Give the backbone structure.
Amino acid sequence: MEPPKFPSELRRDPHHGGWCVTTYHPEREAALNIPLADDPDSVPCAFCEGYETYTPPELAVVSPDSRRKPDSSGWQIRVVPNRLPTLTVEGVEEREGVGMFDRMRGVGAHEIVIESPRHSDRFSSFSIDRLSKILSVVQNRLLDLRKDIRMRYISACRLESPDSRGHLAHPHSQVVGSGATPPSLKTELASAREYYNYKERCLFCDILREEERSKDRLVASYETCVTVAPFASRFPFEVHILPRRHLHDFGLVPIEDLPGIAESLLDTCRRLDVVLPGWGRGLSLHTSPNTVPRHEYWRTIQQDYHWHIEIMPIPPRRQDWAELMGLPLCSVAPERAASALRNAPGLS
């Protein structure tokens, strides 16, 4: 890796659009490396096995017992509606103007994927088989929610934090369907389409090939995926998981690819745990919007977009001023981050 030319850089992000700031300050990196106290919360919660009646009725389940009754013990993975949903399936959109502004009902869906019956389980300790099943459940929920054409965008995310308590500390992810496409995804989709219109190639396929060629920001290569620290990282140790198979939609991923995706995801999270002990983590699935409501608009999305997973480590101390200005600030260069993750002790 070449030494930094400047103490800080503005890097244009071809993926999300706009510019990011990358700094090269060893003392700033050291200041971020403060592990938090290890204080696991093992108190049973509504997501634990045996407490099924404390959640709304399950929407889907993975269970080894075909005779199991709904909302009872003996499950591996459960999907339930969020008791306090951000968006709801009830009602119609009721779009209306308010002066020069517009509004509509918060139509959508908000579901919880309870990833394990055990409160003390942690994502990084899952087996490839369990995570493959979780990915399959998320895929099925995405496809099911898309049948409702009011759902413009459906995706999944999960948040881990050492500060979480109660049911928030139980391993779970969320599937969210929305009547509007998030602004950040719109920017990403526009960047991908602009790149394709200019080069007639997929932006993400090109990123994958370039990172494997240069290796400076490559974390690891797998049969199914490649993991990289993006060139214009918005956060320290940001990692993207890019599937080798070009598909715009996670819903189209063949079931035989899921174990390989699970392997790359688990390996990346374990590397982050080694390099950044005590940090939290956010994962988000980036996939195609529901193209049915506006099928005439998505003319090239099958060629120009490429589903992927983004991982955003959450440091013990965050610098929020740059985010307030809308200018992402990454205080660890992606080349440094990728090198640390590649060489994580015990994971070579």
About this structure: Residues 31-42 have pLDDT under 50 and may be disordered. Residues 104 and 187 are 22 Å apart (CA to CA). The chain is about 25% helix and 20% strand.
